[in-house]
Design a protein that fits this description.
Length: 178
Amino acid sequence: MKKWTNEERYRIYKSKDKEELRELHEQISQSEWRSDFHIQTVTGLLNDPNGFCWFNGKWHLFYQWFPFGAVHGMKHWYQVTSEDLVHWKNEGLAIKPELLTENYGCYSGSALVQNDTLWLAYTGNSKDYELKRHPYQLLAKMDKEGRFSKIEIPAIHPLDTYTEHQRDPKLFAVKDKF
């Protein structure tokens, strides 16, 4: 079994990696263990499903994804969609770690549909030079055309009174006031 270095585990997907991932996908698509009915990753590791919702005429599901191998590493969010909850379409990379507040990955969260926008809340896993974790609760949004944009200012900053595992935000709508 391959021993993964930290440098290999904490790679961020770049467009130049497309050919490498295509080759990995061809290799794993030949596996006798591939399923015909379940959501499964195109390459790498599928971890923690997130943001399951109905938006813009179809079901959306996101999951934590490490593109380069079946090991835990730099978490990205991958998106799949379905019209019937049986047949799933790979939509591709939805969120990748690009901000200082997510320099060690985009961790779990949730989704909320409001009007023509799908809001995603997730944990930005950030580490400092001493590798101490600082979790930020971040927001991104997807419009009806499927374009993603991030809100760069954290919704919730790390709190000194919480552990470094303050994460996995859940969005919900409040219809009536008490």
